[in-house]
Structures are given as C-alpha cells and as structure tokens.
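Box 4.2: Ligand-aware structure prediction
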Amino acid sequence: MNIRPVGDTVSERLPELSVLRRCWPEYADVGSTHQVEVAGVRFGGPRCVVVAGPCAVESRDQALGVGRAVCAAGGQLLRGGAYKPRTNPHSFQGLGLEGLKILSEVRQLTGLGIVTEVLDPRLVEQVAGYADMLQIGSRSMQNFPLLTEVGRTSVPVLLKRGWSATLEEWLCAAEYIAKEGNRNIVLCERGLRASGHWSYARSVLDLNVLEPLRRATPLPVIVDPSHCTGRWTLVAGLSRAAVAAGVDGLLIEVVESESARSQLRSDREQGVPPQVLAEIVGATRAAEATVGRRP
Ligand code: PEP
Ligand code: MN
C-alpha cells in the first residue's frame, strides 16, 4: 500500500502557493528550514527560540519587571500586546500607542527584541514602527486586508493559526503575506478549539500538524502552550512535548510574581512565574544538546 505523506498532497492541491516547499527550490530537502531573523535571533536555526512576556502591556512597571525576568531566565525575545483582541468588548483592550512606547523602552533597557500584535490594517505602519516582529493573532488569521498590509512591510511576521483553521487555510493565510513580498513568516500553533466544554484547558494542542506542515513548507514553526492550556501549571509539560516534537520556538506568557498576577486585566491564569520560565529554557537547551532539534 502506498500512503502519501499529507504535506505532499497539500502541495499538489495548492500548487500556486509560493510558501510551499515545492515552489521554493532552495528548500527542496524536507529537513531544511527558511531562517527568519528577528533582532539578531534566528528562527529555524540550530536553537529553539524562546519568546516570552506578558499577555498585555498593562503598565511600564509591569512590562519592565516581566522584561527583566524574561532576560534573566534566558528568554530571547519579548512578547506583549499593546493592542489586544478581546472576546468581550468591555474587557481591557490594551494601552495602544502608549503600550508600544513602553515596549520600545523595555527593549532599550533589556536588549530584547519585541513581538507584538497588530489587529487593524490601518495601524500596521504604526505598530511596525515599534515592533521587531508583528504578531497576527488567532482571531485575525483570516483578516485578509490585515495580512496583505503586513505583507507589504519588511518586518518579520508571527502568524498564529486560527483555532479552527485547517492546514490548508493556515498556509493560504501565510500566502497572503508572502504574495506581497514578505516571506519572513514564522507559523505558530496555539491549540484548536475542541467541541464540548473543557474544564481543564482552553484548547487542544495540535502537534499532529508539525510533520505535514514541515513537508509542505520550509517556514519555521513555533508553539504557544500558554493560550492553548490557559493554565500556567500545564505550560512546562506541554513546552517539553513541543520541543521533543522539534518545534523552532516557544511563545510563553509570564507573570512577574503572584501578587502581580492578581492585578492583571488579561489572561491572569496562564502566565508562568519567572522560575518556571527558567526551567522551561533550561529543559529546552538540555533537549537541544541531547536529542537534537528534530525527532
Ligand atoms: C496572544 O498571543 O496574545 C493571543 C491573543 O493569542 P491568540 O491570538 O492565539 O488567542
Ligand atoms: Mn494572552
């Protein structure tokens, strides 16, 4: 029986996509990855990149405190939202431009490059002026005007998978960006919404997708265990699983302390304490040294 690898059949169904390995001759080998450099840190290279930080920038003190903790724990890039996609319109929506200015100051003080979300096509220029990497959130994965607009910048893009998106839909979203000339795209699996009510986690992490994704495209792929679980106690275990599966990076939410956690206005339950982040970074480096980056 001849069973075709899924990544190869995706390529046959969507031959026009320029993000596919078969349309990218220098990455014909399934083991090769298109490296994406962000503020001196390389996704798709020999190291698994740890991006960490608060869910949202809530104040200068909070962002700087978490930024320093991320730096001390060995994180390589700082994440943090200035514009937040919130399900409830009455929830905290982020500090906006003020948040971007805080992130820029934290970058200066810690040396960490900044990954931050852009929600609105009209604000791409503004956010790109502060960000080292533009994040497209799960809810925005099929906001085609937004994808087109970030594709017109030269800023690297972190493209999160929509929580019900198929592999094909995710690759088509990447294509909207690449089509405009920006191929510096890193894909981020952040868990899929399962049917029924889940009392113990927000979503289900899809590690199944990694192998077909790698066959289909040379773009690097990272995993977000924070939004997937919604509970910080589950994040370290899932991070180890993702690293063992050969991901190119992790995206992790961090809180500075338990007293700081109680003050947060966004994703209070899922940020790991700095000590846990240090353990995750340690386990990631140990795995690189022993089992290598790919299964
Ligand atoms: C985030 O990373 O801040 C976020 C809102 O995640 P997602 O888009 O995956 O829900
Ligand atoms: Mn969050």
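In the box above, the bound molecule is manganese (II) ion. Residues 55, 81, 85, 117, 137-139, 160, 190, 224, 227 surround phosphoenolpyruvate (ligand 1) (CB under 6 Å).
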